[in-house]
Structures are given as C-alpha cells and as structure tokens.
Design a protein that fits this description.
Shape: extended
Helix content: 25-40%
Radius of gyration: 16 Å
Structural class: alpha+beta
Strand content: 15-25%
Strand order of the largest sheet: 1-2
Number of strands: 2
Oligomer: single chain
Number of helices: 2
Length: about 90
C-alpha cells in the first residue's frame, strides 16, 4: 500500500508478492489465512470483488479487491478521462 492509501507499486515494484498459498476444496471454497485477513482488515461478511485477467482465452491471474474501496479506485481511474471530455 502506498503512503496515499492507494494500492500501487512503487518504482521497485514491491507492492505485489505471494502472501500465502491456498487450496481449493471439492466444493470450490478456499480459506484465506488468518494473517492475511488481519493484514487486509477483512472480517466475516466483508465483500470482495474478484477480478480475473485472461491470456489466450484462459484466466491467468485472479485478484480480490475490497468492494468498499472500489468506488475510490474507479473515481481515480475515470476522473482524468471525465476531465478531458469536459474540455
């Protein structure tokens, strides 16, 4: 997490790293380790958006984002574009 509260890598690319390895059970469920939940500030009932990236028609990367933070993320992405449309 950067000092301005946004998740973005710095010039060293240190934002993303493997935090844990999880296993998907026969029902398709997985458990996020307690340490990861605590570090991310996740509690029972919190909602996460699942973002999937595809390469050559297959999902190659999956990311989880807290839904309560998505509004600010969308605004920061779209604000410059909206500003350009108004001029």
């Amino acid at each position: 997490m950067s000092t301005d509260g946004k998740c973005a890598s710095d010039s060293s690319g240190s934002c993303c790293r493997i935090e844990a390895v999880v296993t998907v059970d026969e029902r398709g469920q997985m458990v996020l380790p307690k340490e990861v939940r605590e570090k991310a500030g996740l509690s029972a009932g919190d909602k996460l958006a699942l973002i999937a990236w595809e390469k050559d028609g297959e999902v190659c990367c999956i990311s989880l984002i807290k839904t309560d933070q998505m509004g600010d993320m969308v605004k920061s992405i779209l604000s410059p574009m909206i500003g350009e449309l108004r001029t």
